[in-house]
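Annex B. Sample input.
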Amino acid sequence: MIPLLKIQGLKTYFFKPKETLRAVDGIDLEIHPGETLALVGESGCGKTTTAQSIFRLVPPPGRIVDGAIEFRGQNLLSLPEKQMASIRGKEMGLILQDPLSALNPVMRVGGQISEVIRHHFDLDRKTAKHRALELMERVRLPNAGMIYNCYPHQLSSGQRQRILIAIALACRPALIVADEPTSALDVSLQSQILALLKELKRDFQLSLLLITHDLGVVAQIADRVAVMYAGKIVEQSATEALFAAPRHPYTMALLEAIPRLAFATIKLKDDLEGGIK
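Annex B, continued. Sample output.
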């Protein structure tokens, strides 16, 4: 199967006055159509920089210095900025970690969804608003008509995260990159957002790159796992194989950090869901 996204030899460095930080140091990754790949590692290992590199949104003094990022066979790193801007949001969606900082604080949330739709499609305001309201209902936001006119600070953390998901889905992209989408939420909200992502992935026929430090989250949603450490991918395998027989010492340490009761609960839930079909 031809990969939807293929990363080869990607290097993204941050050039500081007295040192060079090799945030991403020669990684290879592939995501296939309909697949969920989890990119796992501790804070500072290069996961978020990988996501920024895919969208060509690396902040200065960072810079992609080598490698290729192919999306649908096209090297994103060779595209003019105008063409790349047309791909962001329309063909690849991004869900950021902190919705309060990701959303425009002085713009109503419904308008932020509508703006993305109108940016990529030739639609009038009324039609864009109708689509935005449909998306808000699709991500399980109650009273979508009322919430449409709210500002981000007026919403709960779970509602803001659902708005970010709606924005990412606004143009029905083929790929969603979700950067720690549940880390700012409490446990009950985490479970709801993960269930929603699984449902939307199926219904919208998405591929999903899930960036997380939490292997408990990975056990619930991922088909494959890539483990990142100090800017490099140290292990990749199917999720079940990684949990059953991790090969790299860093992966073993991550697995040891999962609370045993929580992990057993996750696996029991998955076994029941998979066995009753």
